[in-house]
Amino acid sequence: MTVYEYDYPLYRPPSEAYSLIIQATLGCSQNKCTFCSMYKSKKFTIKPLEQIKKEIDFFRIYVKKAERIFLADGDALIMPMKILKEIFIYINEKFPEAERISLYGSPKSILLKTPEELLELKNLGLGLIYLGVESGSDKILSSVKKGVSREEIIAAGKKVKKVGIPLSVTAVAGLGGKENSIEHAVETASLISEINPDYFGVLTLMLEEGTELLEEYKKGNFIPLSSYEILEETKLMIKNINVKEKCIFRSNHASNYVSLKGTLPYEKENILKTIDSALENNEIKSEFLRRL
């Protein structure tokens, strides 16, 4: 192998900006969510183990140092444990300097792994799982075809936490539209409080081409929130989160109208004051900038 090209589109969490990305799978194992366009052009595929190893070999030749490694695409944890274990062992062999291996894990893929298997992956270097919960409302989860229930998401999150693997959770502001905004905020806050993840991020809904939700909007069946309503919803969500242990909060994705950060529960009031200030002073990102 002399040249390597990723299979695009390729996505990674913002915090993995400087990580080496190894594309062990293509697409997303669920890929039915009505609001998400990320992997609609791909059929979910687990690459052959030997191909993954060859790609790791390629990166070892051309990457001088990789302290953090991210396994793509959308749900690498869904791979059979035997394959995952071999990938981790091979990464450790080829990149002994790696301090952390991370990946996306869906609620289903987490629930399919036993605690012993998760612990084994942790001992092999799995240092962070990214879990998209989207909403804490069963009504909204069902409407967006998430494929899991609130209780399943909570069980998955608690499972990761109990094993001791750091957990980063994301929700999507505005996902319930105007009709379900309050339920979305309150139920998501309740879910986050129960899981108490190490990291919690809020993205903001964007109606994307090629998604079912955009078509529902065009038909008049989904009414999106305004920028002000998004902030009011986010404010209600933060106000109702009651975590007992440290949770680093971020809402600084390109989709967000206002950049927010702080550590819950200690800086909750500061976060709420930032939202209030943005609302009072109209310090809200334009739609144009959200799409850059």
- What's the total number of strands? 10
Low-confidence runs: none
Mean pLDDT: 95
Categorize the overall geometry: globular
Strand content: 15-25%
How many H/I helical runs? 11
Distance between the termini: 35 Å
Oligomer: single chain
Element-level helix/strand string: EEEHEHEHHEHHEHEHHEEHH
Q: Main sheet? A: 8 strands, mixed
Give an overview of the whole structure.
This protein is an alpha/beta fold. The protein has helices at residues 49-62, 81-94, 107-112, 115-123, 138-143, 150-163, 181-195, 212-218, 227-240, 268-281, 287-290; strands at residues 20-23, 25-26, 45-46, 68-72, 100-104, 126-134, 167-173, 199-204, 247-251, 260-264. α1 runs parallel beside α2, α6 (150-163) runs parallel beside α7 (181-195) and α9 runs antiparallel to α10. The chain is globular and about 55 Å long. It starts with 19 loop residues before the first strand and ends with a helix.
Features:
globular, alpha/beta, 8-stranded mixed sheet, 292 residues
Present the secondary structure layout:
Layout: E1 20-23, E2 25-26, E3 45-46, H1 49-62, E4 68-72, H2 81-94, E5 100-104, H3 107-112, H4 115-123, E6 126-134, H5 138-143, H6 150-163, E7 167-173, H7 181-195, E8 199-204, H8 212-218, H9 227-240, E9 247-251, E10 260-264, H10 268-281, H11 287-290
Parallel strand pairs: 1-4, 4-5, 5-6, 6-7, 7-8, 8-9
Antiparallel strand pairs: 2-3, 9-10
Helix pairs in contact: 1-2, 4-6, 6-7, 7-9, 9-10
